[in-house]
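Predict the 3D structure for this chain.
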Amino acid sequence: MPSVVYVLWIVVLAVAVLLLPFIIRLLHKTLLAAMSIERYLREMKEAGLGIAGNTGHITALDSTISVATDILGSAGSINANAETIKVTLAGRATKFN
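Done. Predicted structure below.
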């Protein structure tokens, strides 16, 4: 019986020694793939933060458009009042001439 155990151990050891380089190679390829994925994720995070930073100003543009709309309404009122003043002053200037 002990000789069968020794033969079995030798066979298992030989298989392990033969497969060990292959297993190490697979683990190394897995490590390289994981590092590559990590690098791509870091680049995607930087790009996403850049996009978020650039689109953050959209709310400021919306408020600028709102204020500009109010300013245009006020400018229209000022223009109408200026026309009234112009017509009134032109009418009085013709009375004095």
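The radius of gyration is 42 Å.
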